[in-house]
């Protein structure tokens, strides 16, 4: 089993490196324009990406030309943006240099890896036996939970916070990207 866990860690790091490279290129092109996103807008962006995945899974055809895997990559990057925004709040004008954005990206990507390793240990690689469509449904459920938490201004009684839901979205999206690469 330890070999499987090590393989998962390598695959996870590979997907995260791919996501980081894309994030860095977009940061070059657009700067940290996402700093302007309010929490509800970021949640809606995540929702759009996850709904598109579900739509493509059902319809089996993309008229835009991009498939499901790029949307999982986008969910990973927007999930990390969400974690940054939770820590820093939104602004009216971009206030972050690329170096700081990349440092924060690496921090939260590392947190996501550590969480995956802990959970994967306890769940014994269960994600490998799941369908990609289940990851999509779980992500949509996490987004709905975020919306509910936003609507009650974070006043939860027993639930995890928005940050935990972002982390789960990131991890499910990484699993989706890995599984689609293997197909």
Topology:
Blueprint (H helix, E strand, L loop, with lengths): L1 H29 L8 H21 L8 H21 L9 H26 L8 H20 L10 H21 L1
Helix pairs in contact: 1-3, 1-4, 1-6, 2-3, 2-5, 3-4, 3-6, 4-6, 5-6
Features:
183 residues, mainly alpha, 6 helices, globular
Question: What is the average of the pLDDT values?
Answer: 95
Computed over alpha carbons, the radius of gyration is 16 Å
How much strand?
under 5%
Major β-sheet profile: none
Low-confidence runs of at least 5 consecutive residues: none
- For the secondary structure, the number of strands is 0
Count helical runs: 6
Shape: globular
Structure classification: mainly alpha
Helix content: over 70%
Distance between the termini: 22 Å
SSE arrangement, N to C? HHHHHH
Summarize the structure.
With 183 residues, the protein is mainly α.
Q: How would you sum up this structure, described in words?
A:
With 183 residues, the protein is mostly helical. 75% of the residues lie in helices and 0% in strands. The protein is built from six helices and no strands. The protein has helices spanning 2-30, 39-59, 68-88, 98-123, 132-151, 162-182. α1 (2-30) packs across α3 (68-88), α3 crosses α4 and α4 (98-123) packs across α6 (162-182). The longest helix is centred in the N-terminal third of the chain and has 29 residues, at 2-30. It is globular, with a radius of gyration of 16 Å. The model has no long low-confidence stretch (mean pLDDT 95).
């Amino acid at each position: 089993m330890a070999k499987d866990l090590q393989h998962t860690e390598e695959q996870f790091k590979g997907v995260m490196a791919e996501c980081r490279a894309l994030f860095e290129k977009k940061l070059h092109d657009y700067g940290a324009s996402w700093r302007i996103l309010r929490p509800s807008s970021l949640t809606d962006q995540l929702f759009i990406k996850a709904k598109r995945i579900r739509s493509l899974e059902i319809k089996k055809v993309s008229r835009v030309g991009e498939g499901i895997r790029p949307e999982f990559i986008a969910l990973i990057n927007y999930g990390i943006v969400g974690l940054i925004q939770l820590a820093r709040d939104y602004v009216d004008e971009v206030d972050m240099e690329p170096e700081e954005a990349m440092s924060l990206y690496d921090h939260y990507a590392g947190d996501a890896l550590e969480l995956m390793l802990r959970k994967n240990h306890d769940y014994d690689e269960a994600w490998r036996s799941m369908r990609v469509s289940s990851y999509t449904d779980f992500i949509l459920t996490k987004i709905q939970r975020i919306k509910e938490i936003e609507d009650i201004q974070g006043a939860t009684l027993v639930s995890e916070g928005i940050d935990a839901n972002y982390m789960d979205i990131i991890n499910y999206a990484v699993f989706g990207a890995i599984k689609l690469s293997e197909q």
